[in-house]
Design goal:
The protein is mainly alpha-helical. 46% of the residues lie in helices and 6% in strands. The chain has one domain. It contains two helices and two strands, in the order H-H-E-E. A two-stranded antiparallel sheet has the order 1-2.
Length: 71
Amino acid sequence: MRAVLHVLGVDDASGAWYLWWSGVFADVSILAAPLVLFFRHVCHEAGCFRIGKHRLEGTPYTLCRKHHPDT
């Protein structure tokens, strides 16, 4: 249990703010990175979770093969 508290940054080993930045905040950042990468590369059609590999000309969007108008 003590190890879990230390990883979360709530046991005040080196100071409250140090453990906040190296504990809870770092854990949230590490866990959020895969979500950001997933949503960066997923198809921009609503409700479609396929990987978007085809750029839609004239827009910043990427679409999957099913939703791209040229494929």
